[in-house]
Write a structure and sequence with these properties.
The protein is an alpha+beta fold and about 100 residues long. The protein has one domain (about 1-100): Nuclear Transport Factor 2, Chain: A. The protein has three helices and five strands. Strands 1-2-3-4-5 form a five-stranded antiparallel β-sheet, sandwiched between helices. It starts with a helix and ends with a helix.
């Protein structure tokens, strides 16, 4: 939890956040990074995904819940690491607020 809070703090302090396009390979990497965040990451549908120059990724995700039904789109925030892999910082309303505050 401490690492996530530290990462969120670093995101809030980062420089400009000019959004760019996301490749299909990036989408696949983001879905893979959501394995530990979602009940059924295989069912994840992403939309409005944007990536900033600093590697911050914001968008909306919809995935199946425990009952097998889609739960509805929720904001998410992730980071593209220097290795090219992604780390999902959070999924939920707070993620959307952080993305909005960064202008992504």
């Amino acid at each position: 939890m401490f690492k996530a809070m530290l990462l969120l703090g670093a995101l809030a302090v980062s420089m400009s956040a000019v959004a760019g396009s996301v490749s299909p390979l990036d989408i696949k990497g983001i879905k893979s990074a959501m394995d530990d965040r979602l009940k059924d990451s295989e069912s994840a549908k992403l939309k409005d995904v944007r990536i900033a120059k600093d590697g911050t990724v914001c968008g909306l995700v919809n995935a199946k819940n425990s009952y097998g039904a889609y739960a509805g789109y929720e904001p998410f925030i992730a980071m593209k690491l220097s290795t090219g892999k992604f780390y999902v910082v959070g999924v939920g309303p707070e993620s959307g607020q952080l993305c909005a505050s960064k202008g992504i």
